[in-house]
Sequence to fold (344 residues):
Amino acid sequence: MKNLRIAVIGVGHIGTQHARHASAAGDLIAVCDSKHDRADVIATQYKCHAYYSLTDLLTAEPDLDLVSVCTPNGLHAEHTIAALKKGCNVLCEKPMATTVRDCEHMIHTAEETNHRLFIVKQNRFNPPVAALKQTIAEGRLGKIINVQVNCFWNRNQDYYRESDWRGTLDLDGGTLFTQYSHFIDLLYWMVGDVDDVKVYTHNFLHHDTVEFEDTGVAILSFASGALGAINFTINSYGKNMEGSLTLFGEKGTVKIGGQYLNVLEYQNIEGYTIPSLPPGNPPNTYGKALGSMSNHDKVYQNIVDVLVHGGRIATDMLDGLKTVQIIEKIYKAAGRKPKGKGER
Fold:
């Protein structure tokens, strides 16, 4: 059986996780980062080649099966499209991009080049999340009438100051893109598309480090008729407090909580109980900050299943587009002007 030949672009906090899982899933051929010392350290660790520009990587390594794009959000589209045009399949970290237009360009390029474009949606593999999705698919909750999302994390000044892109409008894009796009994805995955949005946002405590909101409240009207609300902040004092999703259906109520959607906190379903769940993976770490559950091993397992064994893709690139579409709709309702043509 052929091992996939993989390269990872961008080896910061999340990129190092990709390097580890890529080396386990196939052959890690190369890593690339504009910060030379960072690329050199990871290349030495995994005994692979180090490159400092994507152009150099794609020129020197023409036989790659997969390029994992882990660069800042605002560069995802540019780097994904370049890799696709060189004949590589691509795994793109969340968010897919920071504009719908860029997502569409990525999808069109994947279709034109006849290559796969995978989007990281690792929270779909959380045991309580997967169990709730199955419960909904089986019709056990009946019609979903209301959904509540709480995202109460801590991202302090040091988190932004230690990075040259976090907190910037061009490369980060906003709190919903970098911190909470997984929650938006799960809303779409479980409840469906959003028709209308009412939003309030404000930057209370991050004036010197963030070019956008640090807190927001969004009221959502879904195409299905359901109503929902998202309360989000990065101002939870001292540490993460909660990341939760609560669904109210005609036949049941379920809440997934914990700090990062890792605990089935409440269930009351007509004639049914979600059975005991296996333990999940620990959260990703970003210096002192904790993020979503680390299920990247499952992401890479799915890629191997698709590219080597002809299996079914776990996260369609259209799902990545829908997440960005909903976030863009929220920010537009908050009064943010969309990026103009050619901007990133």
